[in-house]
Amino acid sequence: MGLLIGHRLAAEMPATLSSMNIPAYIDSAAADFLEQGRAAYNLLGLEQSRFLQADKDTHILTWRGTDANSVLAFAVTSAGLECVVLDVGVKPSTQCPMKLPASFGRLRRGRPRP
Q1: Angle (nearest 5°) at CA 86 between 20 and 93
Q2: Which element (helix H / strand E) includes 52?
Q3: Which of 71, 84, 78, 76 is nearest to 114 (CA)?
Q4: R_g of the chain computed on alpha carbons
Q5: Which of 34, 89, 91, 104 is 20 to 30 A away from residue 69, measured at CA?
Q6: Alpha-carbon distance 2 to 15, whole Å?
Q7: Per-residue pLDDT reduced to its tens digit, 35-86
C-alpha cells in the first residue's frame, strides 16, 4: 500500500474539485492538472453521486481517508463481498453485481453473511 490519505485531505477533495478558484500558490502545470481533474469530476457527475462506474467495476466514493475506508471494506467483506480499499472510497467485488444490494442491506441491518 502507498501513502495513507487522511480524512481531512479526502474530505477537501470534492470541495476543491467543485470550486472554480485556482490557488495562487500553484504553478501553471499544477493549474492544468487541477483543471483536468475538475473537468473529469464534472463529466463523471461526481458532485451528484458517490458511485463511479468503470467498466464492470463500481467504485463507492466516501471522500473519507484510508483508515475509514479500510473499516468500510472490512464491513463489506463481512457482508459477503470481497472489497478493495481505495484512497477515497472502496470497490466491492463485481463478480456478481446483483449481490451488491443484498450485501449492503445485510450490512445496514448489522447482519453478517449467511
Answers
A1: 125
A2: strand 51-54
A3: 78
A4: 16
A5: 34
A6: 24
A7: 999 999 999 999 998 888 888 888 889 999 999 999 989 888 887 778 899 8
Inter-residue contact 96 to 64 (CB < 8 Å)? no
Per-residue pLDDT at 95 = 54
The answer to whether residues 36 and 22 touch, using CB atoms and an 8 Å cutoff, is: no
Q: Which residues contact 86 (CB under 8 A, 6 or more apart)?
A: 59, 69
- Give backbone dihedrals phi and psi of 95, rounded to 5 degrees, phi first: -60, -30
How many structural domains are present in the chain? 1
What residues contact 63, with CB distance under 8 A and at least 6 apart? 10, 11, 13, 14, 50, 88, 89
3-state secondary structure of 35: helix
Domain extent, residue 50, equals: 1-114
